[in-house]
Amino acid sequence: MKTPSPALPLSLAAKLGLLGTAALVGLPILGLGLAWAYPVGLIDAPPIHTDRLVEATSNTVLLALLVTVFAVVLGSFFAWIQVRWIFPGSSLLTRLTVLPLVLPSFLLAATLREGLAPLGSLGELLGRQERFDGFGATVFVLVLSCTPYVQLVVSAALKRLPRHTEEAAQSLGASPIRIVREIVLPALRPALGFAALLVLVYAAADFGAVAVMDTQVLTYELYQFAGRGGVQAPLIGGLLIVAISPLVILGRRLGGDYGSSELSYVRSGHMAGRRPALWVKIIGTALLGIYLIFGLVLPLMLITRWGLLIPAQGPLIGPLVTTAVVGVTAGLATLVLGGFPAALVAKSKGKRGALETLTFVASGVPGVMIGFGLLQLALRVPQGSLRSFVEGGAILLLGLALRFASHSYAALKPALLTQNQQSVEAARLLGASRWRVWHRVRGPHLAPALASGFLLSFVAVVKELPITLMLIPAGHTTLATRIFDAHEDAHLGDLGVAALSLLGMVLVAQALLWRWSRHER
Amino acid sequence: MRWLSIVCILVATGCTSKDQSTPSAAQAEPQAAPQAKPVLTVYSGRSALLVEPLLNKFAEKRGVELKLRFDKSTEKLANRLAMEGDKSPADVFFAQAVGYLSLLGEKGLMHALPKRLTEKVPNAYRSASDYWVGTSGRLRVMVYSPERVKNPPKTLAELADPRFKGRVGWAPGNASLHAHVAALQKHWGADKTSAWLKAMQDNQPVVYPKNSPQVRAVSSGEIDIGWVNHYYLHKIRAQDTSLKAANASFSAGDAGNLVMLAGIGIPKGAKNRQIAEELIDFILSDEGQNYFAQKAYEYPAKSGIKLHPEVAPLGNNLLQLPQAAQTDMAGSLALLRALRIQ
User: Fold this and answer.
1) Is the pLDDT of residue A456 over 50?
2) Cβ neighbours around B165 below 10 Å, total
3) Which of A100, A109, B66, B156 allows an S-S link to A209, with CB 3.0 to 4.6 Å?
4) Strands B206-207, B168-170: parallel, antiparallel or unpaired by DSSP?
């Protein structure tokens, strides 16, 4: 049982650590500022196209809003089927609908663009005349990518809802619609709010799908202007921060205790579901089926066909090793960067402060912005051993750790908060050394959370594209960048083989994650 | 703290290792490296899948360790080099379009190459100031669907005809297009080039990041015609025989029939100039030139090298324009940006 105790004052070391973390988070912004103040280019800087900026900004906002609306409706519907209804196939189908999570958005976009082209595998079958790209196609792809996040968050919340209130209302004659409107929806509001903001930030910050679909939004504009000199790129970067930071802060406020730990596992098993009307079954099955065809079956079919039937040109071992090394090191780095604020928040007995906001803001900043800011900074480090260290991988690890620190934070904070201080003190009174206290008391308690935090970050890192694309050391390629390059080079054999390897790696990590999560529970 | 030390070890051994295929090499270095291999840093605007096997062959022969930085955009790579100035770690700059090498040379950021290297290729294939030497050539063509386009355009100007509205693809961020626009400005003049680009833009072309996806897009029905280099079709067809697309040139002497050079040079900050020159020498050797001809389906810069059987010899229908006409990248980019194309 936890003993309430006053928050402990922060030590000098903790304060210095706090300042250090804040400084790290500020590095991409510093890079942005330097690029603005000292633009360098081979030729005259391109002019700032205000109308292009306005168009990109409005496209970004509209894209994020549309994806959010569709993904929240679809994901909530799937969650409802998963938790509350039971009909033939519903259990299997709703388990499968979370699997598109393993597909990075750029891979999903690349396969759908090819498959739904007029002469593509499905495009020809459907008699499509138009190519599958642009704004509408991007909305479609991102809805497919984001729906599992909503399903996971909302289904977890639905399972936690006490059923007795609904049963009481039902026994008093309330209609199902009234029960949903007056009892279920208000109770789900924090989960829905968190899921909506999660999707909003995801869609606004996405780089992969918009790049493959050639959609002019801020992230893709920044990528295109990065490296060309001039002030257009830092200007777009600034706009991105201004547009997204308030969303992240709002998300933290609305989401309450919801965090990315909600996404760490699929809670299996059905509660006592009821059998819906026939028309509901038909609509539900159709929607689940259509979602799975586009979100899972078609992409997997194409990747497998390309990987097996078209010979690859480049070797795979290099990207595979680099991906594993980057995934492991960056996963550990996120534990450091996310674990430190989690430990401080735990020390202050759960009082969330600037540090937590800082962690989440850093993680909410689009990867392309972090990559650009850090690259600008790295290029301005004088030549020498420091520059070699920075360009040798340190800057990449920092970028990835900043981007995904919130994953480790969300996984570690609950474990740190629920540590039984009495057990620790009892062990010390019994003469246990510091190491033994860690080994026998703290370690076993924190291990599942550390494993979850690491694996969550690992999965996110190996799928990450823009930071890796911009900061990877010379001579290295990850599976994600190989897939992106192979798509741009139209080398579908290389794309297929790299995608199959990436999916294998993610699935292994995900399986371990589910195992640890069960252990944690 | 245990995992903190693991991070440090992995950072030191994994991510800073110089060869992606041997991540444990750095760990073994203290015991088994009496003489460290010299490191040659190559910036390449040519794709990894295309040139990496050739560069690796040189590294193996010469006993050198390569640090390769690839970027699909030669423009961005040239900008990076300009930003790094004479402190750049690059020993060699391998550019998809020689115009960027000229531009860097004019800014004083390239060494002049020795005559023994530049004289390996004909005069037309090297820089007047010896800042670069051409390594291979490519022909600008259109790739199209013979099933859907019964009467392909006869001239480049006709590609902007309204009958092709929404059916044409291009890659305005690609160095080949920049070089072609530079050549058009010399050949047609600025006004006609600008008017043609505007007509193309009004025709709502589909934008691709590179040339190769246009070939694939013709085959998958996304577009009917792409404006590309000749070799992409051959390379993609070698992998995928079901490809439904064909190359076509424009009428004899038309502005569309342009031969373009990829080139190589040594940046001012090169630390290993001697090895960089050896690499260029290797690329211009029969072995290197045969690689470009047989594996990349390109036109060798050096005379006397046999073409790939699938590649048609350069005939007499080419636009006769000196290579220098393709090097005004600043003018080309300024026009593309003024028209909001790039």
Assistant:
1) yes
2) 12
3) A109
4) parallel
